[in-house]
Amino acid sequence: MGVRLMVVDDHRLLAEALASALKLRGHRVLAAAAPVAGAADLVISRAPEVCLLGTAAPADPGIFDPVVKIKRERPQVAVLVLGPVPSPRGIAAAFAAGASGYVRHDERIEGVERAIMKARAGEAAVAPQLLQGAFGELLNPAVQPDDEGQRLLRMLTPREVEVLVRVAEGEDTRLIAAGMGIAPSTARTHVQRVLMKLGVGSRLEAAALAARTGLLDRAGPVRGTAPSEE
Q1: How far apart are CA 190 and CA 54, in angstroms?
Q2: How far does CA 146 lie from the centroid of its chain?
Q3: Exposed / middle / buried, residue 94 (Cβ in 10 Å: 0-12, 13-18, 19+)
Q4: Is residue 145's pLDDT more than 50?
Q5: HTH luxR-type domain spans which residues (predicted)?
C-alpha cells in the first residue's frame, strides 16, 4: 500500500525527481515543494503520513526548525531528513528536533522507500553505515580546531606569555623587569611585542583579551621558566 508523501527540498529539480520516482513506485505524493524555509506550513496544512525534508547543511543552527514546527502542529507526520553524510551532531540534531530518520541524498530509491516505510511504522530510519560512522567519530573524535585562546597562546614565546601574565596581574614595567630579572628596556620591548602579536593597543586591552579567551588559564605556571636576559 502506498504512502501519502510530501517532498521538500531547496533544490526544486531534486524534489520533483524524487517525487516522480516515488509516484512510479505506487506512492501518493501530495506536493514537491521548495524552498524548505516556507514548507512547514504547507506540510501542516496537507498532513501527509511522511514528509521528506532536504537539507544541504545538517549541522547549521536552526536548520531543523521546520521539523520542530511540523511535529508541534502535526505530531502524527513522520519527517525524514534527506542530506549529505552528516556528523554525529547533525544526526543528533535531526532526531532532537523530532525527525524519524536520516537518509543520504545519494541513497538509491529502494533505500529511500525502506526508510519511508519504517518512518510510517513509527520506527527510526537510519542506514547502518551512517550509525557506524557516527559511533566511530564519537569513539575516535577528530581533532577539533584550536579555540581562540590556544591560537593566541601559540603566537607568543614562553617569555612573552610570562610578560602577559604579569601585565594581566597589573604589574608595571618596573615590576615586570624586577620579577623577571631583566632590564626595564627589555621588559618594555617584550610588552610591545605582546601587544603587537595580540593586535591590541594597550595593556588593558591585552589583559581583557587574555581573560576573555581563557588564554591565562591555558598558560599555566610560566614564571621562572625562561632564563634571564638583558
Answers
A1: 54
A2: 14
A3: buried
A4: no
A5: 149-214
Q: Running DSSP on this structure, what letter comes out for residue 51?
A: E
DSSP H helices, the chain, are: 12-24, 39-46, 65-73, 88-97, 109-120, 128-139, 148-155, 158-168, 173-180, 184-198, 203-213, 215-219
pLDDT band at 221 (very low <50, low <70, confident <90, very high): low
Measuring CA to CA, which residue among 205, 201, 227, 226 is closest to residue 215?
205
Contact 137, 152 (CB under 8 A): no
Q: Which residue has cell 515543494?
A: 33
Which long-range contacts does 23-31 make (Cβ < 8 Å, 24+ apart)? 25/109, 25/113, 26/2, 27/2, 27/3, 27/113, 27/116, 28/2, 28/3, 28/4, 29/5, 30/4, 30/5, 30/6, 31/6, 31/7
Distance CA 207, CA 211 (A): 6
Q: Taking the C-alpha atoms of 96, 98, 104 and 110 in order, what is their torsion angle to the nearest 10 degrees?
A: 140
CA atoms of 100 and 82, how far apart (whole Å): 11
| Contact (Cβ atoms closer than 8 angstroms) between residue 80 and residue 103 | yes
CB of 215 closer than 8 Å to CB of 209: yes
Between β-strands 101-104 and 125-126, what pairing exists: parallel, antiparallel or unpaired?
parallel
User: Which residues on adjacent β-strands are paired with residue 101?
Assistant: 80, 125
Q: What is the pTM of this model?
A: 0.57
